[in-house]
Amino acid sequence: MNALLLLDLDDTLLKNNIDEFLPDYLDAFSRFVGERIDPQKFVTSLMAGTQAMLQNRQPDCTLKEAFDAVFFPLVGAKPDEFQAIADRFYQEVFPGLRSLTQPIPQAQELVKEAIQRNYRLAITTNPLFPRAAVLQRLKWANLPAEQYPFELISSYETFHFTKPDPAYFAEVLGRLGWSAGPVVVIGDDFQRDIAPARKLGLSAYWVDSQPSENPTDMLRNGGGALEHALDWIDSNPVDNLLPDFSLPEACVAILRSTPAVLDGLTRGLLETDWKWRPEEGEWSVTEIICHLRDVDEEVNLPRLKTVIETANPFIAGQDTDPWAESRQYYLQDGKQAFIDFMAARQKAVALLEALAPADWERPARHAIFGPTTLQELVKIQAAHDRLHQQQVLKLISQLPDCSLS
Q1: Are residue 8 and residue 146 in the same domain, yes or no?
Q2: Beta partners for 122?
Q3: Number of folded domains in the chain?
Q4: Distance between CA atoms of 385 and 355, rounded to whole angstroms?
Q5: Model-level pTM?
Q6: Which of 139, 226, 277, 361 is the most buried (most CB within 10 A)?
Q7: Is the pLDDT of residue 1 over 50?
Q8: Residue 143 lies in a domain
Q9: Quick one: pLDDT at residue 93?
Q10: pLDDT of 405 higher than 50
Q11: Are residues 48 and 194 in the same domain?
């Protein structure tokens, strides 16, 4: 079984009480920058920037960019100068906070056993910290990234959403290529780990730092001590651990995350990379994004409005693949196509997020599928998104001198 484990970090792999850690972290950081920035202003600005990250819903804006847009005007520092100071803090001072944390022996055992089983592993800590801070905390957990094959480590430089937004986990899966096998989230925080994972349709194991008096019941319900997580996986049929992306919340999370995934994958591409084709007849990144743009603008968005506003409408089928050649996608501007796709997608998501639960059952008659519902049509749209995210990821991985992070 080629399972993918999405592992929370703090109080899952590393004992780190945030209520105790955060005050010392803020005190150490504010004192370190005290010669350049008033400590009180620094803390207030940092917390305001953090709030901006938690509220970010702009799929082409990383969490770092959301933080910077609020933090720097408030604190009155130049970004380049502050970044140099922050880099020194994480190199010289942040490691001293290790004494506030404790490694969890069972965490290292779980990771080693998962590796022996050939499971895929990702660190899905809430991406509110720089990568340097996350890597330090992995070392404190005795799980240094250079020694363990974590395929992804989320941090504020590269992610667009935070927990408990289900779109965060959708962004994780998109960056990993939407694994076809079982996916299990393992975390200690029900509201930030377990609930959003289940909303996306993922299996989740709730780590209880104070195990119940009845561990059998906890295991049955998907929770218990960390050392029993793999036992719980073993106790479930494989089909029970496969993602189910059919529910409305899952579909909307996927649709919201697609522009963020594409933004993360295409940042840093050269102009020639946007146009590169692995073989004649295959689409480039530009052509894929032009396809997504036109399908959203001319098919998906009008279709959603029709089903929402009309009683049991007839929906015509459309073959959109030939548009790539007839509309000469290859010659278009891929970056502008992405901007236009994102705008159309945000309109579609706004429509769906405004629906009442009963609206998802609104009927329609599709020329190909026959009788259907709004939920079924959106589920198909989300599956179409996943397919093209995989296509872009594969394409970029084949680029000459490619180094995906």
Answers
A1: yes
A2: 6, 152
A3: 3
A4: 21
A5: 0.95
A6: 226
A7: yes
A8: yes
A9: 97
A10: no
A11: no
